[in-house]
Amino acid sequence: MKKSTKVWSSAAAAAALFAVPACSGGGGGDAGGSGDPLVVGMLMAFSGPTAVEGAEVVNGCLPAAAEINEAGGVLGRDIECEAFDTKGTASDSVPAARQMLSTTSNLFTVLGPSTAEAAAAAPVLEEAGQVMFSPAGDGRFDRTELDYYYRLITSDTVGAQAMALHSQQQGFDKVALVFVGGASAQANIPPLEEALGGLGVGVTEAMTIQPEQPSYRTEVARILQNRPAAIIFEADAVTAGTFLTELNQAGGADIPIVTNTLATTGDWQKVAVNAYGGDEALAKSLQVVVRYAQEGGAGTETYVETLQSLEGQDGIDVPSFKDSAYSRAAYDGVILSGLAATKTDSVEPEDYNSAIPELLAAGDGKTVVTNYSEGVEALGKGEDIQYVGANGEYRLNEFHNVIGAFALYDWDPAAKELRLVNQLPADELEALASGQR
């Protein structure tokens, strides 16, 4: 018997439900009935060390569904968000993908798979002709030939290059690399070492640690033997709490910690504050380099306002995800799918897929739209549109990838949240990403 999967409805009165999706058919299509809700499959980790990735997607999908449904749906059909748990592993992702495709006749679009699962699961979705918006950092997708694959988040290669560029700008002569075991470490460490070397920054240690161990004292001691100017770090909240606590206990509290998107979540920040014994101490150490989340744009404002309107609904965490470029990319992926379906008058991925790049491309005479209802209205008038969404403008390349801007955030001890310090020089980062530096 198939296990129930969690379904989130965007209706204001609905709570979290557990339901078995309707059986029959493959991905996409009208087999579920012309009036049935369209399902956004969230093919992500909802359990295990990378479960935060599932939470990021929930906080993008639900606001998008709410916005679309408020505007009358996609060709008159409501949107629902349904979770398919990959558990953050390649081996679990393929059965989850196949279950999603075989049991969800009204599958519309997919959010995922992520880094650990994409190499295994994305080809399954591609073969089924299913549009997917993946946050996978895997560098193997930098030049993907998959027609149905879109990445609205920069790859780990570019993220690693951004941390390397930041390290050089900070004047760090040598750094240690500490990444939790799994696909992310494999994707980050090689481009980091290459970029650091090209920028003249030495590496004292390139270490992969296993997640959620009871102690990392041995690893901390190794790092402190050749004391680095900074530690470039990536780990889930549980692992980070243990590692950073023991780093502090061993006398490494003054070493800057340069990290990335995992540090944008409330759980991670809470354990980091505890590890450093307070906000003031954490503020002296934490340096977060992540994709720059545009502030103040109309698309951003719509996303944040819609997310805030859902506060209290199961799965919604406004403080943790309102500034998340990953949640915003998930939101934009659902909105894009809805607009593409409207443009092509079809909810079939094989029909609306080709319209997605067109909707993101700038062009003379195009009408810029920043939300779903604006887009539907403009399309109804026969206008060509460019969607500029929660993450701002996407410059999609021929491989359905974006580079994007990166910025440095530190910890504001008064506000108890991350604070924007500055953007990294876009020209220098693009030169690194293109191999011209």
TrEMBL record:
SUPFAM superfamilies: Periplasmic binding protein-like I. Residues 1-24 form the signal peptide. Gene3D superfamilies: 3.40.50.2300. Keywords: Receptor, Signal. Pfam families: Peripla_BP_6 (PF13458). Residues 38-328 form the Leucine-binding protein domain. The keyword Lipoprotein does not apply. Belongs to the leucine-binding protein family. PANTHER family: LEUCINE-SPECIFIC-BINDING PROTEIN (PTHR30483), PERIPLASMIC BINDING PROTEIN OF ABC TRANSPORTER FOR NATURAL AMINO ACIDS (PTHR30483:SF6). This is Extracellular ligand-binding receptor. It comes from Mycolicibacterium vaccae ATCC 25954.
